[in-house]
Structure to design on (566 residues):
């Protein structure tokens, strides 16, 4: 066994090889050792020689790590995982890597590489002096660690004492003087080993929680995939049934059929987009959980208590994670109520055709949002159809504003001054939102004063009308008046608004069932601007966007609407 160990030792440092490199003469040395010899004994331009056989080599000698030999060294040391790097280069470029640390006690022997550092003596030790340090009784109580070029990084910079304690209040390693007379006086401090044990237990608990969250997210993804299939099957089924019914009245209702098919297609797209958003959120959560588990696993493998505490503090894992709960997938949010409504409308047409024209959906439009009116904390999508609460930078602090503070809004780019206009906003499962319209003067006032906390321009005056949803409750708001609304059945997934400026009427609908929720008289000549307020984000639970619903291709619908209006 001794012979085998000798073949795995570097002739220079007399220790097991670290990144062994073989010279053209077949002699092998540690990469840092041979570089240290060449740096100390020869000029930058050479000549370069073998310390064993004294053979001189050309000026450029490639140094490539012998991975097979390193693997044998790792196996001999009880570590079957090779951790060698793959540096390669020439001695002419030796300025790039940092030079090895020399032994402070080797005065006569040049090039002795230190392998250990005594924090008590503030000295770097080679293999021989490190062994001597352990054998002398007077030096056995000294703290000896792996070699480091900055011993002060492992000591208290205020008192220059060893870091032997861990301040539980500030979560940092400290020395004894810090606790007695220093900045951590009267703080609760524990031994490093005890702190390591407690934090490792906490990390193990965190890993178990992350594993549980990952499992819940995976189940949620399976539920989302099931809803994908069900939504596609439902859409296909509705398409077939609606097409069959339209075949009996196709002569007069070709345009109306195209409208219904577009509604079904757009509904399917809307549901798929929401499902995909939920899926991406769950996959992101899984990736974050895997990343944190990987970091925790690496930390748990750290054997040096001080290094462990420094790393866990630097990575921000020193405190238990506040993990949000994984919400169950709500299949009702993908209920094909909209497609069922389309089919019901076709049935009604077969009984009494003319009273149902023109369709409200014939006036469907999708206004574009005006970026200039968006509050700085809101983010508008590139197609200007979505708005959501922008993720706050870490340095920003949350204020005490209520979720429906109306200055956090964005208006449409163009207003309505005449005709009939119908638009829908997808809210899905957002717990807080405010949607409505405002007139021209209020729109300009809100645009200029959006940094103030005034509610003018969107809610609280005679120039605005809106519906507010807060955690399952609905309010209609106009002229400082708030009226509770009763929404039949389940909560709204889409809110529809119809502005009939010819009649001076503004109506709010459950866009899935076309059920009227609230109606107002609108008088005057001011333009009406749709306004969307996604409301502030509450602990990540209200980050979902508000989306303007739109059909894929509205050309046929517009012609159809014009014909019916004419």
């Amino acid at each position: 066994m001794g012979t085998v160990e000798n073949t795995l030792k570097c002739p220079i440092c007399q220790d097991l090889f670290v990144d062994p490199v073989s010279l053209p003469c077949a002699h092998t040395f540690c990469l840092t050792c041979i570089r240290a010899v060449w740096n100390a004994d020869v000029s930058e331009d050479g000549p370069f020689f073998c310390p064993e056989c004294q053979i001189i080599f050309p000026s450029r000698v490639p140094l490539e790590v012998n991975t097979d030999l390193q693997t044998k060294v790792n196996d001999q040391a009880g570590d079957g995982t090779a951790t060698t790097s793959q540096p390669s280069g020439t001695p002419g470029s030796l300025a790039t890597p940092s030079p090895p640390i020399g032994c402070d006690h080797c005065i006569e022997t040049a090039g002795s590489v230190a392998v250990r550092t005594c924090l008590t003596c503030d000295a770097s030790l080679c293999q021989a002096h490190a062994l001597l340090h352990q054998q002398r009784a007077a030096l056995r109580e000294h703290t000896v660690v792996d070699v480091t070029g900055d011993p002060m990084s492992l000591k208290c910079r205020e008192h220059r004492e060893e870091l032997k304690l861990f301040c539980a209040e500030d979560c940092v390693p400290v020395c004894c003087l810090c606790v007695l007379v220093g900045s951590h006086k009267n703080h609760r401090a524990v031994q490093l080993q005890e702190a390591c044990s407690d934090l490792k237990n906490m990390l193990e608990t965190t890993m178990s929680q992350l594993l549980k969250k990952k499992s819940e997210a995976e189940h949620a993804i399976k539920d989302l995939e099931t809803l994908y299939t069900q939504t596609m099957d439902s859409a296909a089924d509705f398409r077939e049934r609606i097409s069959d019914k339209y075949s009996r009245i196709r002569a007069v209702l070709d345009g109306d059929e195209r409208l219904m098919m577009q509604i079904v297609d757009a509904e399917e797209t809307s549901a798929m987009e929401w499902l995909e958003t939920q899926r991406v959120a769950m996959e992101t959560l899984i990736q974050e959980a895997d990343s944190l588990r990987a970091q925790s696993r690496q930390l748990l493998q750290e054997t040096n208590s001080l290094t462990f505490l420094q790393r866990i503090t630097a990575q921000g894992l020193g405190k238990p994670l506040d993990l949000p709960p994984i919400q169950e997938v709500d299949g009702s949010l993908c209920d094909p109520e909209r497609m069922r409504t389309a089919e019901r409308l076709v049935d009604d047409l077969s009984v009494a055709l003319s009273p149902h024209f023109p369709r409200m959906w014939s006036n469907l439009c999708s206004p574009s949002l005006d970026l200039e009116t968006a509050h700085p904390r809101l983010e508008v999508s590139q197609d200007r159809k979505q708005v959501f609460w922008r993720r706050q930078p870490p340095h920003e602090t949350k204020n005490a504003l209520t979720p429906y503070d109306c200055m956090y809004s964005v208006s449409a780019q163009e207003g309505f001054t005449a005709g009939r206009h119908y638009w829908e906003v997808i809210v899905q499962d957002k717990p807080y939102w405010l949607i409505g319209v405002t007139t021209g003067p209020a729109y300009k006032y809100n645009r200029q004063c959006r940094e103030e906390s005034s509610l003018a321009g969107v809610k609280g005056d005679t120039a605005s009308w809106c519906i507010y949803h807060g955690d399952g409750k609905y309010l209609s708001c106009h002229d400082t008046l708030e009226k509770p609304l009763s929404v039949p059945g389940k909560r709204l997934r889409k809110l529809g608004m119809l502005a009939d400026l010819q009649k001076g009427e503004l109506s709010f609908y459950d866009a899935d069932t076309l059920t009227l929720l609230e109606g107002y008289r609108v008088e005057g000549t001011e333009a009406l601007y749709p306004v969307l307020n996604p409301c502030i984000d509450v602990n990540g639970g209200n980050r979902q966007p508000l989306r303007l619903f739109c059909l894929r291709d509205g050309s046929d619908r517009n012609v159809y609407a014009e014909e019916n209006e004419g």
User: Anything to note?
Assistant: The chain has three domains: 2-93, 201-357, 365-393+401-550. The chain is about 35% helix and 15% strand.
